């Protein structure tokens, strides 16, 4: 696992031992960031279920203004911090050691406005619960295995599906939040 492009290009990242995280393959990560090439620079990014931090680090490497990493696994948090040091991107990063569903007070306290949200949850995503309160117009990327895509709800619209491996099933969706309230 490595950083594909930007200021930290080519740096190999550490990973969490065991099978508690599923790092995103480079080809999928490359596809995601090619789609977001015009969006990432100068954006505020949040990496939910951050795992190793590879997605948020890729965003920072490609010019994101800042990234908030949300992860509640202690060993993963240590790996995120180590990877931020390896890439020298820690100045623009903040690691929140919380469950995704507990971060709203921390974001509200600092008046954080998020432009791009990455989420690769370890279990079927509860869409309504996770996206209430995010800013309208934010871009939310659901990363999922091809056989378990997220459901749809009334307040999101799929902007783009990305296909990998099995061309019949999307493995990520770029979703723009609309009329969340």
Automatic annotation (TrEMBL):
It comes from the Bacteria. GO terms for molecular function: methyltransferase activity. Gene3D superfamilies: Vaccinia Virus protein VP39. SUPFAM superfamilies: S-adenosyl-L-methionine-dependent methyltransferases. GO terms for biological process: rRNA methylation. PANTHER family: METHYLTRANSFERASE. This is 16S rRNA (Guanine(966)-N(2))-methyltransferase RsmD.
């Amino acid at each position: 696992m490595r950083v594909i492009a930007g200021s930290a290009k080519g740096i190999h990242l550490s990973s969490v031992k065991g099978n508690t995280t599923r790092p995103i393959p480079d080809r999928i990560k490359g596809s995601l960031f090619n789609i977001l090439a015009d969006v990432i620079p100068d954006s505020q990014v949040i990496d939910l279920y951050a795992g190793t931090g590879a997605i948020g680090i890729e965003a920072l490497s490609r010019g994101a203004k800042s990234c908030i990493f949300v992860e509640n696994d202690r060993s993963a948090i240590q790996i995120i911090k180590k990877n931020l040091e390896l890439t020298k991107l820690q100045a623009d990063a903040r690691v929140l050691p919380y469950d995704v569903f507990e971060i709203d007070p921390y974001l509200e306290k600092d008046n954080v406005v998020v432009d791009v949200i990455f989420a690769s949850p370890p279990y079927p995503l509860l869409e309504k619960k996770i996206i209430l309160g995010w800013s309208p117009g934010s871009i939310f990327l659901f990363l999922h295995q091809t056989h378990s895509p997220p459901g749809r709800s009334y307040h999101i619209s799929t902007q783009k599906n990305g296909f990998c491996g099995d061309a019949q099933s999307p493995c990520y969706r770029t979703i723009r939040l609309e009329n969340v309230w």
